[in-house]
Amino acid sequence: MKDDKKGGEVDHNGHRQRLISRFLSEGLKSFEPHNVIELILFFAIPRADTNDTAHRLITRFKTVSGVLNADYKALTSIEGVGKKSALLLRVIGQLISYTSNEQINSKAPILNSEDAIEFFKPKFAGVKVEQFYLLTMNKNGSIISCVMVSEGGFTYTDANIRKIIEEAIYDSASAAIIAHNHPHGVAVPSASDVDTTRQISEMLAKIDVNLTDHIIISQEDSFAMARIAKFSGIFSICNTKRVASEQPQYNI
């Protein structure tokens, strides 16, 4: 496979070396999102300036994770992104998911709402846009996988129900937990959140997968819908007789 389009004759080695040196001394903690993508593109576009391309990618897909989880064809539609760049971005996105699932498999089972909250909190730390995750489990509550199924703007994300069903089938899951964040609000479900949860629960039930909880994380707080009595009917495997203050056990 040939290198991606050069896009110019100027040698940007000095800028590249400064960015690489900065990464080696500081890691990515001080990098802006476009700097992260620019650094990755160095390895697919060996000579041309990757800064403008990185900015275009962030503008289109909003975040670094949005770029790394973008569809291959969508990536190649961006000016300056050829087949090699798109492939590299997709490989890194999949590699992150792969290694994350390796770490997940070594974690303790998710047995109740508190376990689920503690699992999801780190995933949303510092995230400025809404993201929606699916966690799948076996009959013992052991984690099979955790994937981001959609990512939205600053206030809204669509729950990709089709992808949720496909992931649950692929994992041969017995149970699932969904989670999303409210980056600029409180951790309380909206009417839309409740409706979406009910739809997902009904669709999963058709393939014999129990939805056990919906976790919502904000910058300051967290919320587990399965803890609240009025939502108990949504989660078919939870004890509908418990009171709101009791912590449910996920008897999968």
List the helices and strands and how they pair.
Blueprint: H1 13-26, H2 33-41, H3 51-61, H4 64-68, H5 72-76, H6 83-104, H7 113-124, E1 131-137, E2 143-151, H8 161-170, E3 175-182, H9 191-205, E4 210-218, E5 222-224
Parallel strand pairs: 3-4
Antiparallel strand pairs: 1-2, 1-3, 4-5
Helix pairs in contact: 2-3, 8-9
- Low-confidence stretches are 5-11, 237-247
Radius of gyration: 21 Å
Discrete helix count: 9
- Order of strands in the sheet with most strands: 2-1-3-4-5
Structure commentary:
34% of the residues are buried. The protein has 252 residues and is α+β, with helices and mostly antiparallel strands. The protein is elongated. It is built from 9 helices and 5 strands, in the order H-H-H-H-H-H-H-E-E-H-E-H-E-E. The protein has a 5-stranded mixed β-sheet, with helices on both faces.
Briefly characterize the structure.
With 252 residues, the chain is an alpha+beta fold. Helices cover 41% and strands 14% of the residues.
Looking at this protein, list some descriptive labels.
9 helices; five-stranded mixed sheet; alpha+beta; elongated; 252 residues
